[in-house]
Q: What sequence folds into this?
């Protein structure tokens, strides 16, 4: 039989990225958290954490974390059915991995009513849409929004829709770098803006235009900062059209190749045994995506 106090310590260390913060969340001393991890490892007969910075779960640790995520959600269902089990009516916390562009555009209107009605607090882990699924695989989150279709074991995947990206730049940048017009070769020679090392959207865009090889670019790991750098004339970039309607209307940003938008599919991944709360969130997201995303 599992000792869930030990599993809670494992979850807290991974979710809080260290023993010190985990101790604060659990209301324990750091040494007490460490002892619980050691006791868990003694009981299962192998390590559950790699002592790195931040600590990382082992393969067994990931399986235990996946179990903890699902148990938390099922406990919430049971408390709703048996009010006497509610130990104080604290809001439920859902930990979700999501890409920065979704967080900056359609996510808030999609989940605001759900969180208010069900008294849910969200821990949102920002990851590029290409790699967000790794957080579920590691057992760190209950669900994620990402571009990968294939779910991890024990989870479901559902296509929500797509985010449409357009290649944009400021008028000053266009005048400086494309005086005779925008061509694929000129794009490759001009500074681009890339979200982070896991973001290959601009790379694939240039490849689709027949441009092979590398290109120069700024790195900007902020969705809002990305738009500011683009409108400030530092480079060109692929930006969600949901995010820049105002800038386009005011002429602060101009589309470089209007006939070549990029649609990035977004999938919602969630645990099969995630309980009614996660099921209701899934239904809300599907309805919101019909209004907010490209179908």
A:
């Amino acid at each position: 039989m599992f000792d869930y106090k030990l599993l809670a310590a494992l979850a807290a260390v991974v979710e809080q990225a260290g023993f010190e913060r985990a101790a604060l969340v659990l209301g324990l001393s750091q040494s007490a958290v460490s002892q619980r991890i050691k006791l868990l490892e003694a009981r299962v007969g192998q390590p559950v954490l790699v002592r790195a910075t931040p600590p990382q779960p082992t393969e067994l640790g990931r399986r235990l974390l996946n179990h903890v995520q699902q148990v938390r959600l099922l406990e919430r269902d049971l408390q709703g059915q048996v009010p006497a089990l509610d130990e104080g009516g604290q809001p439920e916390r859902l930990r979700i991995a999501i890409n920065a562009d979704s967080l900056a555009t359609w996510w808030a209107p999609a989940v605001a009513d759900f969180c208010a009605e069900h008294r849910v607090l969200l821990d949102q882990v920002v990851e590029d849409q290409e790699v967000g699924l790794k957080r579920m695989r590691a057992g760190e989150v209950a669900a994620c929004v990402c571009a990968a279709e294939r779910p991890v074991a024990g989870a479901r995947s559902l296509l929500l829709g797509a985010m449409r990206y357009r290649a944009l730049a400021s008028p000053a940048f266009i005048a400086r770098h494309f005086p005779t017009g925008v061509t694929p070769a000129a794009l490759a020679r001009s500074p681009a803006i890339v979200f982070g090392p896991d973001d290959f959207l601009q790379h694939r865009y240039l490849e689709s235009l027949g441009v092979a090889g590398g290109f120069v670019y700024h790195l900007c790991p902020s969705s809002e900062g990305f738009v500011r750098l683009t409108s400030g004339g530092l480079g060109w970039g692929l930006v969600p059209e949901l995010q820049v309607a105002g800038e386009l209307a005011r002429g602060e940003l101009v589309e470089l190749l209007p006939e070549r938008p990029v649609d990035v599919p977004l999938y919602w991944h969630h645990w099969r045994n995630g309980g009614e709360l996660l099921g209701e969130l899934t239904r809300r997201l599907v309805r919101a995506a019909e209004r907010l995303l490209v179908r």
Remarks:
- The first helix runs from residue 4 to 15.
